[in-house]
Design a protein that fits this description.
Blueprint (H helix, E strand, L loop, with lengths): L5 E6 L2 E3 L2 H8 L11 E4 L6 E14 L4 E12 L6 E3 L2 H7 L5 E2 L8 E6 L6 E11 L2 E4 L1 H7 L6 E6 L6 E10 L6 E5 H6 L7 E5 L1
Parallel strand pairs: 1-13, 2-5, 6-9, 7-9, 10-12
Antiparallel strand pairs: 1-14, 2-6, 3-4, 4-5, 4-8, 8-9, 10-13, 11-12, 11-14
């Protein structure tokens, strides 16, 4: 029987942004709108890395009296209905934020964060929106049927062949006609499994 595999992609820290937030940060004239231009297309249909980068800023450290900053974080397009910043747990410690592990879009009560345009200094302080993304597999309905899983199901995935075979539990299956088959993990998870080059995973039954 053929072993069913899917590509495993490392998703680095990134920003999803609303039109209103980008308009403010880019200081566009009233009645005009900022645009996101694709610098690189991503595996998910219609998704892309834009040509705009922002700094993300954590809270003031009470010991130092200073804010921690991660500079030059990419904005992914297209625009979203809510601002969402996805970072690794290592990033969260560096910034001093308590980013919960959440699925995309589940932002209620998530960590506050600030976005700063380094070109003009304009800043937005978000009361919530910063998360560590729950690892997940994008599938079409046809993929889900082939793999014998359903939307929202939690599975375990084995990534092997790099000297650090790793089983990733708590992986959520996300099914939509608009998706392309791929698993997404963050940089911490990728480094733990020593992922390099083309990486494939299998669901462990």
């Amino acid at each position: 029987m053929e072993e069913l595999k899917f590509i495993v992609e490392t998703s680095a820290r990134h920003i999803h942004i609303t039109q209103d937030s980008l308009d403010y940060l880019m200081d566009v004239p009233q009645g005009a709108h900022a645009e996101l231009h694709a610098r690189k297309n991503l595996s998910q249909p219609g998704q892309f890395v834009s040509d705009i980068r922002l700094d993300i800023v954590g809270p003031v450290n009470p010991k130092t009296g200073k804010e921690k900053v991660i500079k030059g974080v990419s904005i992914l397009g297209p625009f979203r209905s809510a601002d969402q910043i996805e970072i690794s747990l290592t990033d969260a410690r560096s910034l001093g934020v308590k980013a919960p592990i959440r699925e995309s879009g589940d932002l209620a009560g998530s960590a506050p964060i600030a976005l700063v345009n380094p070109e003009n200094g304009r800043r937005i302080d978000l009361q919530e929106g910063c998360i560590a993304a729950k690892r997940h597999i994008h599938m079409t309905p046809e993929d889900a049927e082939r793999f014998g899983v359903k939307n929202g199901e939690i599975v375990k995935v084995l990534v092997s062949g790099f000297g650090r075979d790793t089983s990733f539990g708590d992986t959520v299956v996300r099914v939509s006609k608009s998706y392309a088959l791929a698993m997404h993990i963050d940089t911490d998870e990728s480094n733990a499994a020593a992922c390099s080059g083309d990486v494939y995973g299998t669901i462990v039954r």
